[in-house]
Amino acid sequence: MKIVSLKLKIVLSTVLTCTLIVLAISFIDLFRYREAEKTRIHEEFVNFEKGAKVTIREAVWLYDWNMVRTILESQTSQVISFVEICDNKISKCLQHGTRNKSPYLEFQTSILYEGGDSDDEIEIGKIYLQSHYDTIPTYIYNDLPRFLFTNILSVFGIALILFSLFHRQVIQRLLILEQYTRKIDLKKIDSLDPPVCNDRVKFRDEIDLLADAVSNLIEKTKNELVRRKNLEQQLNQAQKMEALGNLAGGIAHDFNNILAAILGFAELSCLKCEPHSELHGNLKKIIGAGQRARNLISQILVFSRRTDSPQEILTLATVVDEALHLMRVSLPANIRIETVLDPDIRIKGDSTRLHQVIMNLTTNGAQAIGDRSGTLKIALRDDSINGQQAGISVLQPGRYCCLEISDDGPGIPDEILPRIFEPFFTTKQSGKGTGMGLAVVHGIVHNHGGAIIVDSTVGVGTTFSIYLPQTEEGIIEIDKLSDTPTGSGQTIVLVDDEIQVLDMGKSILEGLGYKVMSFNKPKEAIAFLQEENSIDLVITDLTMPEMSGVELANSLKVLYPSLPIMLWTGYKDDIASESLKENLIHRILQKPFHLEDLAQAVSQVLVNTNPTQQQR
């Protein structure tokens, strides 16, 4: 498309408009001039009647025709082109000038004389006048150029002045704005200054408003680019965490199977040896080391979001107070804690995991402050998320609470900030940190359906903002079983591809009073169950080479729809969780587990699916 400059358009439009105006004004002036000429002729007629008529009357009355002729010659001028005077008595007329030269105006009047004592006027003659004036073409030829020249100077002069003002006040400023917008580079938009089109601060017009609109658009573009950059970083972080979570979950699954066998057999051996013997002590040490390994794997599973935690209705301010009460004992005296907590906020979550979040973040804050005096600020407030807020757009819109934990330490450098939630990443000296603290915090928060945002300024401090969904449900007290239940000869089918875990589980369950049939291949278990229908419970591993635990459960439900099935697994995936919700699976037990955990889980499944079962 051909581009025509605004200046050229305005120049052409101005020239055309001024030309039309000049022509119109010139013809109007010409018409007025012609009408003025006619008016001047009428004025000459009136002056003739007032001045020369008296002399003519006396001359006609006295028959002084020489005088009449002299008057005729003197009254003929450029205005009055023809004069005729006639005497009524002798029918004599004298004429002078050119008659009937068109176009013309004519004037006729009677010569009246007052006679004697009578008041009556006697008409003694007539006066006839003609005045010729130019035709319109003659006016155009003679006078229009003069009018055109005068009007061109005036109209185009005014137009030039107005155009100069318009060019300076509008076009030049629009060109500045156009050049400014052409130079906009989205890669350097952060360093872009707002456009300046007016040096006068007191007076602002529409061009300044347009410049403000461009400036606002640039500011919105900056914000949008920042928001997209944050979302891109958030997506990259989520993908990275997901990949690391998959890796960690796979490692944890294999390690949990090994650890389950170690802890299970160690606990069985403890039960069969003398309580105060050296062997018993060594087994207790094995169990203790296994428990520490279990806790480490539990942290990895929390990070990978593949572990379950008990969900209950909590008053979050109470959880924070409890965690801070424990932390105050271990914090140095140079660190002051300030809290502003909303006591009415309730969430659904695991108090133990939330304790861990608060203690990890406060510990990090205290370590950042170091030996100097500093302040930890913990605030809990009600908040609402609209889905467009920077950094937390991953959350669904709704009512949330915001838990902020701030310190006035040295802050986190920008080059480190994107990596702080990575597992095993730490800036501490060797041996002073595992690098799992913030990774575990990240996993716990996301397991609770929330998000965690970090705002850190070097030299000012760091603020961790945790957003968790609120609940309107009331707090429910949960009673826990304290005694280890045993069986009364119920038959349990045990399926696991790990022989050590299979043997460990069989030994524990038989020790608890159950009859156990164990299989390390799911298809062998199905074949057995097709011929045996007196089974009280099936316990299966989740991940197996031939068939998963969920697929095995689906096959068994076809044979025995009411058969209770329990999963034990090194980690739990979404399919297992859905199966639990759909009552395909009645219970999921996380590996590694204690003897009491397995006893409680089996007992609860048997009682819930067959209330007539009696547990000892």
Automatic annotation (TrEMBL):
Residues 491-606 form the Response regulatory domain. The chain crosses the membrane at residues 12-31, 147-166. Keywords: Kinase, Membrane, Phosphoprotein, Transferase, Transmembrane, Transmembrane helix. It comes from the Bacteria. It catalyses: ATP + protein L-histidine = ADP + protein N-phospho-L-histidine. Pfam families: HATPase_c, HisKA, Response_reg. The keyword Kinase applies. Its EC number is 2.7.13.3. Residues 250-472 form the Histidine kinase domain. One of its GO terms (molecular function) is phosphorelay sensor kinase activity. The modification 4-aspartylphosphate is found at residue 541. This is histidine kinase. It comes from Desulfopila aestuarii DSM 18488. The lineage of its organism: Bacteria, Pseudomonadati, Thermodesulfobacteriota, Desulfobulbia, Desulfobulbales.
